[in-house]
């Protein structure tokens, strides 16, 4: 029995050391690679053209082989006719009569909200060229994360709203916690029936190894200037006063979160939806968290009648090995959170 206990203690120590070393390596590698990966590029895709090409391919697949030549010939004539109309409009200074633009932004947020940097560049690019009648669609997917990161993401979306752009957020899978903080800045929110929304709450947890260190006669010293410079620690001995102050800070953050959501969506009963709970799309509609049940695909297809739909995506240069490792960790964490939320709802 003593052998098993000692072996178990050894495994805990070994795992802890490996975890700490791994964290330091990731931080070091991240810092050294940031300087090399600062540059990126905007990728622009005309979704109208992509969708029309899909339609063309499917129509041709349904037409007998002998009739395809005539269809392609007629289609080419129609495209030339439309192009001639557009050229005439430009020549006569009537470009403003053409369709306005709907810009599509994809945001898949991780715990550390590192995607905000790309979001900032995408939004800045849009604001430099937007015209009257243009709108924004954000396809949002996030379980939330750090408060300051998602607060900045929400502030970036607010930049577009302050410029008079109408913003629609589409949630196909999940917009929880910080993800919902971003979503509620929009003028209009639509979500799939089984998407997960809400979690207007704050959570924080840290491990504490103090007893393990004491049992192995390892002392930890920490000196601070300021009563609450540190409240809870990983290695030191936590106090009731520190715990109380830590909870107070959580409650302050929660209050800020509630006030923000209530300001953006004043018709919701903020006390009933700020319990930290999650809801599926249909229930979220009843509570006023969203405005419509639907998917981003349907919204885009409908919008093509009135808008030139353009997807804009800022892609940073990446170190493939390091980023694959980080992305893998983020995907595991996000999958775990989504699975946890689903199990809770069941």
UniProtKB/TrEMBL annotation:
Positions of transmembrane segments: 6-28
CDD domains per record: S49_Sppa_N_C
Keyword Membrane attached: yes
Alphabetized SUPFAM superfamilies for the sequence: ClpP/crotonase (SSF52096)
GO cellular component: plasma membrane
Keywords recorded for this protein, A-Z: Cell membrane, Hydrolase, Membrane, Protease, Serine protease, Transmembrane, Transmembrane helix
Protein name in the entry: Protease SohB
């Amino acid at each position: 029995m003593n052998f098993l206990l000692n072996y178990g203690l050894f495994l805990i120590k070994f795992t802890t050391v490996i975890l700490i070393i791994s964290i330091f390596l990731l931080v070091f590698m991240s810092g050294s690679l940031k300087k090399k990966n600062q540059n990126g590029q905007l990728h622009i895709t005309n979704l109208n053209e992509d969708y029309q090409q899909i339609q063309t391919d499917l129509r041709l697949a349904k037409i007998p082989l002998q009739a395809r030549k005539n269809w392609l010939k007629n289609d080419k004539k129609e495209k030339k006719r439309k192009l001639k109309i557009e050229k005439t409009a430009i020549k006569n200074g009537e470009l403003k009569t053409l369709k306005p633009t709907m810009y599509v932004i994809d945001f898949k947020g991780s715990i550390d909200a590192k995607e905000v940097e790309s979001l900032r560049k995408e939004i800045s690019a849009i604001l430099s060229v937007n015209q009257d009648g243009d709108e924004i669609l954000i396809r949002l997917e996030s379980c939330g994360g750090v408060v300051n990161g998602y607060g900045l993401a929400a502030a970036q979306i607010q930049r577009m709203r302050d410029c008079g752009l109408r913003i629609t957020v589409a949630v196909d899978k999940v917009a929880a916690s910080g993800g919902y903080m971003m979503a509620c800045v929009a003028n209009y929110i639509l979500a799939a029936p089984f998407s997960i929304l809400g979690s207007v709450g704050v959570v924080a947890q840290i491990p504490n190894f103090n007893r393990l260190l004491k049992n192995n006669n390892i002392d930890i010293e920490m000196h601070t200037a300021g009563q609450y410079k540190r409240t809870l620690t990983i290695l030191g001995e936590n106090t009731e006063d520190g715990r109380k102050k830590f909870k107070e800070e959580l409650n302050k953050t929660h209050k800020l979160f509630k006030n923000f959501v209530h300001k953006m969506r004043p018709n919701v009963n903020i006390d009933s939806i700020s319990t930290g709970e999650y809801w599926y799309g249909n229930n979220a509609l009843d509570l006023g968290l969203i405005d419509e049940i639907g998917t981003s695909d349907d919204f885009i297809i409908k919008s093509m009648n009135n808008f030139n739909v353009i997807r804009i995506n800022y892609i940073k240069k990446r170190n493939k090995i390091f980023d694959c490792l980080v992305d893998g960790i983020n995907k595991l964490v996000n999958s775990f959170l989504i699975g946890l939320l689903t199990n809770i709802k069941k």
